[in-house]
Write a structure and sequence with these properties.
By secondary structure, the chain is an alpha+beta fold. It is built from five helices and five strands, in the order αααββαββαβ. The strands form two sheets. The protein has a three-stranded mixed sheet with strand order 3-4-5, with helices on one face. It has a two-stranded antiparallel sheet with strand order 1-2. Strand 4, helix 5 and strand 5 form a beta-alpha-beta unit. Helix 4 packs antiparallel against helix 5. The protein is elongated, with a radius of gyration of 28 Å.
């Protein structure tokens, strides 16, 4: 399913890019003085996109221009959503494990994330852990988010996470390295009454 979505995304990007390139190139060519074909929307370099008659033709229809603006705004929002979806770092689906026989094996990324998060959750003072694998399947990277109890020293939690959970994950998957981006924050707690 992910491969299909990736293919659809690339095809859509290619079609939109080629369309914008063709229209932009044609408008530039007409602006530089190239004679446009008879069916083209502009007659020459001094032609405008919308003539006065075209702009005022629907003046009595109060719904027309707000609808046009709303549709264009929706298209801009969809384009921005698509751009952020494309640029967002993708979750790694599988990790290539070196089995020593030259062929290797594939380990599900979510399985490694789950094991790593479970082991990090068992560390003293950690209340919640979120783990996400990124990078390439031959060279995975991790993003770890820890929520710590207020009394826990961040340096101690980081040392234990590195020495235990990350080291175990790296060794069990037979990886040369497992770089980690670790972010920590303290869990909120209720104020205590002093009596």
């Amino acid at each position: 399913m992910r491969a299909v979505l990736r293919t659809v995304n690339r095809v859509l990007l290619a079609v939109v890019g080629l369309g914008l390139l063709a229209v932009g190139g044609a408008v530039l060519a007409v602006g530089l003085g190239v004679s446009p074909p008879s069916w083209w929307i502009h007659d020459g370099p001094h032609d405008v996109l919308l003539s006065t008659a075209e702009r005022t033709r629907r003046r009595d229809e109060t719904w027309w221009w707000p609808t046009v603006i709303a549709v264009l705004a929706l298209l801009v929002l969809l384009a921005l959503w698509w751009l952020t979806a494309v640029l967002r770092r993708r979750r790694l689906g599988e990790v290539l494990v070196d089995t020593g026989d030259g062929a290797g094996a594939l380990l599900r990324g979510r399985a490694l994330e789950g094991v790593l998060a479970g082991e990090a959750d068992r560390l003293d003072g950690v209340t919640h852990t979120r783990v996400r694998l990124t990078g390439r399947r031959e060279a995975p990277e991790t993003r770890v988010r820890l929520r710590l109890e207020p009394h826990v020293e961040p340096a101690t939690a980081l040392d234990r996470l590195t020495a235990e959970a990350l080291t175990h994950a790296r060794d069990s998957a037979a990886l040369e390295a497992l770089p980690a981006d670790v972010r920590m924050r303290a869990a909120k707690h209720k104020a205590e009454r002093v009596g």
